[in-house]
Structures are given as structure tokens and as C-alpha cells.
Amino acid sequence: MAIDPIHENFQQVALSSSDTVSPNSEGIALQVERLGLQLDGKVILQEISFSLPVKGVTSVIGPSGAGKSSLLRCLNGLLTQWSGSVAVNGCDTRKWRGGWDQLRRHVGLIAQKPVVFNTSIRTNVCFGLKSWRQRRHADELVEKSLRQAALWNEVKDRLNEPATTLSMGQQQRLCIARALAINPRILLLDEPTASLDPHSKQLIEQSMLQIAEQTPLVCVTHDLAQAQRLQGPVIFMCDGRIIEQGPGEQLFSQPQRIETREFINWSVCDCD
Predict the structure, then answer these.
(1) b/e for 136-171, b at 16 or more Cβ within 10 A?
(2) DSSP 86
(3) How confident is the model over 228-255, as pLDDT tens digits?
(4) Distance of alpha carbon 247 from alpha carbon 231, whole angstroms
(5) What is the pLDDT of residues 149-199, one digit of tens each?
(6) Rounded CA separation 159/163 (Å)
(7) One-character DSSP codes across 9-63
(8) End-to-end CA distance of the chain, in Å?
(9) Which helix (H) or strand (E) holds 200?
(10) pTM to 2 decimals?
(11) Which residue, of 63, 106, 168, 223, has the greatest Cβ tally within 10 A?
(12) Domain limits of the chain?
């Protein structure tokens, strides 16, 4: 099931500060139980269960076709045909007030390929600002978001220039800033540095670690070294299932499953 990237980005970036939800008393931002997904008769995800703490970066690793990107799209409601349960801050996403569109105001998604709008850098950041209070403080929010995305120093004197003039790495950081401006409760990133140069990758990783001090992140990545640098829990997926999950340091140094060990050491996965 193809999803138009322009439509996806429009859906991802709309949260007013009045819509925020407090973390539940157990300190869990996201709870997933027995999530399953079938598309066109093919099993994409099966029996996916994990929880996301209220801070930090959780990395999702695994071979191509493991279901990692589909998982993210289930979590923020871009895919809705799944079974099982997903709760954000203790609230069942199927019963979310206002439906899937309102859920996406709380759960942002950054795609692998940045999609910027053909307007100024400032307007791109402000795209999702809807409340009167947010619009009144737009300049402050623009600076804050661009700083969080490690982009402010590069664009502060060119905010009225077209966003399309930015490099690929800068555009990806602009997409992150646009999502942050509307204060998401959870931020999902799908291979956010896959097509970027090493310097841009480093800047985005630093930004992610800073953001994760206050907002939980889920990062799908094929870069195992990146998952280690992000320092948080790691989920290893293969064939639509979670094979192993746990603290990153433990999973990489002492994997409990032979499938995990083979993937980490040789990028081989035979989980059928």
C-alpha cells in the first residue's frame, strides 16, 4: 500500500500546544501489545509487543522487508488495518478523540526522504502552528525548533529564502524542526540519515539525543553503529516479528538469540 510522501508530511505536522497529553503514571509513552498487520493477504507484522519510555531513543534494526517502516505507520495511524492494541500515554489510539488525524498531531513521523514545501524556511517551520498563542509566538518557536534541529546557525540570516535552496541534510533537519515546532508527544524517524553525508548524519544524531531528553523517539535504522551511538533500547525485527529487544549495550555485546548474533556480526538474517 503506497503512501504519498507529500500527503504523509502534511498529516505528520499539526499539533497545537493545547492538545498535549501527559505521560501516564507508569512512565510509559507508548505501549504496543500483539500488533499484527496484513496487507493484500500478506502478513507484514505479527505479535509485535513493546513499550517506549518517556525519554530516550529506541532504535529499531533489522533487514530490509522486516516490517520496520510499516510498524511506524501503524503507530501514527497512517496504516489503520492492524490488529492488537496501541496506547499513547495510556490512551487507546483506536479510540483517540478526533480520530487518526488528531492522533497524528501527537505522533510525528519523519520520513527517509525529506519533503519540504515550496515556501520560505520560516513558513515551513510554522506550517503546523494553528492556535492563536502559537502564531503569536511564531518567531520564538521558529528559533527554538531550528536550534533543537541543529539548523539555526546555518539559516538564521536566510529565513525568508526558499526551503528548496537548502542541502539534503539541511532539508532533513528542517523537517525535524517543523515537527518539533508543534510539540509532538512522540517522534518517529524512518531512516532519517540514510541518504546523508557523514557531517549531516552527525548533526542529526546529536539533535536526536538532545530532543530525546524531553521527547521519546523511535528511530528505524539500517546503521548498527548509529543504533549504538544513540545509546537507548534496541528492537531487532525480522520477518515481521520482534526477535529480540533490550538495552542496546546488552543486545550488541551479548545477544540472547542466535538470529540477533548473526545479524549483528554478518548482516545475515534467517528468521523463517
Answers:
(1) eeeeebbebbbbbbbbbebbeeebeeebeebeebbb
(2) E
(3) 999 999 999 999 999 999 999 999 999 9
(4) 8
(5) 999 999 999 999 999 999 999 999 999 999 999 889 999 999 999 989 999
(6) 9
(7) HHHH----GGG--PPPTTSEEEEEEEEEEEETTEEEEEEEEEEEESSSEEEEE--
(8) 23
(9) helix 198-211
(10) 0.88
(11) 106
(12) 5-14+29-266
Distance (Å) of CA 109 to CA 1, 52, 190: 17, 16, 8
- Residue 107's closest CA among 128, 127, 88, 121? 88
Separation of alpha carbons 119 and 225, rounded Å: 35
Out of 76-85, 96-105, 150-159, 209-218, least confident range? 96-105
Higher pLDDT, 90 or 271: 90
Q: Sheet containing 186-190: which strands, arranged edge to edge?
A: 107-110, 186-190, 217-220, 57-61, 233-238, 241-247
pLDDT, residue 189, reads 98
| The pLDDT value given to residue 26 | 63
Paired with 113 in beta bridges are none
Q: Can you state the percent helix, strand and coil of the chain, rounding each to 5? A: 40, 25, 40
DSSP secondary structure code for residue 253 in this structure: H
What are the CA-CA distances from residue 25 to residues 28, 54, 91, 232, 252 (Å)?
8, 11, 12, 21, 30
CA-wise closest residue to 234 among 226, 221, 223, 245: 245
Which CATH code for domain 5-14+29-266? 3.40.50.300
Pair 196, 163: CB distance under 8 Å: no
